[in-house]
Structure formats: C-alpha cells, structure tokens
Amino acid sequence: MSDQGILSYLLITLQPDNVIACFVGAMIGTLIGVLPGLGPAAAMALVIPLTLKLGPTAGLIMLAGIYYGSMYGGSTTSILVNVPGEPASVVTTLDGYAMAKKGRAGAALAIAAIGSFVAGTISVIALQFFAPLLARTALAFGPAEYFVLTVLGVVLLSNLTGKSKIRSLIMMMAGLILSTVGMDPIGGLERFSFGIDTAQGGISFIAITTGIFGIAEVFEVMAAREKPVEILPVKFRELYPNREEIRRSVAPIARGSVLGFLIGLLPGPAATMASFASYGMERSISKHPEEFGKGAIEGVAGPEAANNAASGGAMIPLLSLGLPFTPATAVLLGGMLLHGITPGPFLLRDRPDVFWGVIGSFYLGNAMLLILNLPLVGIFAKLVRVSPRYLMPVILVLCVIGTFGDNSALFDVWVMLGAGVIGYVMRKYGYQPAPLVVGLVLGPVMERSFRQTLIISGGRIESLWEPPICMVMWGVALLAILLPMVIPPIKAGIKGRLKNKA
C-alpha cells in the first residue's frame, strides 16, 4: 500500500464522529485509571454494547481510547495520594508520591503526562511500521522462554526499592506464594482457598495492591501523632518540571518507551511488568540510585513511559495475528468480533479503514490526553494540600468502591483491609511492598510456563535451558546475581590503592 493510501486511511480518524468517539473513550479511560480497581478491561466490556450503534471504526476507536486513556489516569492517584489507580501505576507510587510530599506533585504529574504522550506516540509509530515482523518474533517465545524470562524478572527486580535485599526477597516470595491461591492453571483443581468460594478464583490483585499501598497509607496518617507535614503554597511556574527535571527525564522516557513496547509483545500483564522493569533499569544505571524512593524524577518518567508504550506493543499481536495477550486486548478482540471484524493477517487487506483508523486514533488520543492533562496539573496538585482529616476518608471510600467493583465480592474488601494492616506493619519494620507485587504479577506466568515446559518435554528439566534464547537469559540472570557481589570489592580495592598512592 502506498504512503498516500495509508495517509488517506489515517485521515479517517479525523471524521467528526470518530473524533468524538476518541475523545469520549479517552476521557472514560482517564476516569477509570483514576478510580482504583475498575480496570480498562472491565470498562471496555461495559461500553461494548454502546459501541455497536457507532459502527465498527468509531466503536473500536472508543474502545481503544478507553484502553490507552486508563494508562494516563492511573498515575494521578499514585502520585497524589499513594493509591495506584491501575496495577501498572504501582511503581509510580515509589517516587511520585515522594515528590508530592516535597511539593513537586505538579512536576511529577506533568512528566507522567509528557512521558505517556511520547511513549504512546513512539509505540504507535513502531506499531505502524513493524507490526508483522515483531508479531512473528513474539511467537518465537514458548513456555520455556517465558519461564526463564520470569526468573530473570525475579532476579532483576527482587531488590527494586534498593533497601535490604533479604527483605526484598522475602516479600518477593510472599507474592509468589499468594499467586498460587485459587484454581490450578493446568489441572483445574482448587487449592489453598480454605473452603472460601470467593477465593477459588485467586486472591484479587486489586485488593492486595489497594490495601498495601492505599489503606496502609490511610492507617499511617491516622496513626501519626505529630502534626501532618505542611506543604508550602506552590507558584504557577513551579507546577511544571524545571529544566533539570526535564533533562533528567529525557533518557528514561526514551528507554522506557523502547522497553515497554518490546515487553508489550509478550503475553501477560505487559504494562505492569514493563513499568517494574523500567524502574529497575533506571535505578541500576542511575548515577544517584540513593535518590530512588525519595522523589527521583526518573522513577516517574521511565515507568510511566513504559506502561503506555506496552499498551501500543500489545496491539501488534492483536491486529497482526488476532491474538490478545492482555485482558484489555481480549475484550477489544471481543468488540471487533461483535462488529463483524476478524483481526489477523487479513485485517489490513479486508478492512484497511478499521486497521488504520484504530492506529490513527492512538495519535489523536495521545494528543488529546496531553492537552487535557497538562492544564489540569495545577488543579490536581492542589489535592495534596487538602487536610488529611478530609482526604483520608475519601481515599478509604474510593479504595472500598474500587476493590468491591473488581469482582463484586465482599471477601475482596476484607482482603484489602487485611492487606492494609499488614502493609502498615511492614512499613514499620522496613519491608517494602513493591517486591510482593512483582511476585504476585510474575507468579502465575512462572508456574504455568514451568509446568507447560515439563509437560511438553516429557519431564526433561534440560528443556529449560536448551533453547538458545533461554541460554542467553540464564546468562544474564547469573551475571545479575554475581556482579553485585564482585563489583563492590573491586571498587573498594581500587579506592584503597588510590589512597595509598596519594
């Protein structure tokens, strides 16, 4: 297809009904991202009946707008009140909330919006030009490769917060153990549910994350005897990032965009894994790793770029192969089928208007979200100045509504409250919750791929390292374990020699 033909199809997005559909979808997605619990997949499922009256192109554009709009909105409550609106925004709480407590909430929100816009645009450009090639590459990953990939993730992200490695590993193992509650993914047997019907489907990810972050924060503020920290009035020019913050954000946004897009090609919670991986990478290569967790702008820029880029990457296997690798793209696949559209290799040939219309909506939607979010930074930033006696009850209500709305189960609310108490105690003893979330995310993928590998190979354990890709990843994991043990003594020896010569 010629460039002129592609451009004519992309311009379909600018038709009035498609622009309105894109705007409405992006706004709904933003609100869904702000509200803890109700994720993009649930919101898209609720809206699908309404899109049937809009026609295939406008309807799918609205669903796509909800998908990427939720990635924007998830960062808002993470930064302002330490409650991740989306699982992918859990990492943003580490430095975004720390920046808010320093009076830099506006800068964090602005960088999150800019990073999301840049990453979203980059991922759509890559989606447009490399979709078929990248989709075939993603299919080269089998169960063995996915298992080794999750092991590599555990190794690289176990010390995500830079605190005690032993404590981080303990939290990681706790997350892996919690991920086994519910139905056996291979045999279908119930396990570790202790006769609780609601627990048969597993421990709710939303309940755990909302509890250990949001509810624990409420408990901590309520238990504080000292006067809450006063946040000084912020001038208009201080609502946005300064030159130094922008300079430090450029490279993390670029790296997060590439990393997130590539992880988006893989099955599973790609946006969540991408944000964690980006944070771990930025902290490991930073010249000031001690700033992470205390308000490092890189800890906001990289992960926010990564989770938005992952949403673009996840569209490649859906549009090119008809394979939904995430819950949100699975719902989008359902919407396409209801509209009589069959995604896959022939989508571009049979319905180029839908294919390019959806891709064009990503460009338009990202621009809309940036224009909408940046002017609202000042309003959002004022939220952190609200007295805790008024703000904390609102957060508590939002947490309860979001958690209950996830599965409409009262059991999840009790899990959330229990997780909040445990999260509060963990903070007192220096245990950080982020590694637990990593284990909770990677656990199901690790178990399923490990058992599938053994079943396919007839129980041969060697199949976990025989494929070349596996060998490379095992080597990277081994280096990640050994280098922290080897480098510090070498540095100490070099410093000692330099001092002796001096």
**Fraction of residues in helices?**
over 70%
Can you write the helix and strand succession as a string?
HHHHHHHHEEHHHHHHHHHHHHH
Distance between the termini: 68 Å
- Percentage beta strand: under 5%
> In the residues, how many domains can be counted?
1
* SS element count, helices: 21
Low-confidence stretches: 1-5, 228-236
Number of strands: 2
Q: What is the mean pLDDT?
A: 76
Oligomer: single chain
Structural write-up:
The structure is a single chain. 71% of the residues lie in helices and 1% in strands. Strands 1-2 form a two-stranded antiparallel ribbon. Helix 4 packs across helix 5 and helix 5 packs antiparallel against helix 6. Strand 1 and strand 2 form a beta hairpin. The protein has one domain. It is globular. The termini are far apart. The protein has 502 residues and is an all-alpha fold. The longest helix is centred in the first third of the chain and has 34 residues, at 105-138. The protein contains 21 helices and 2 strands.
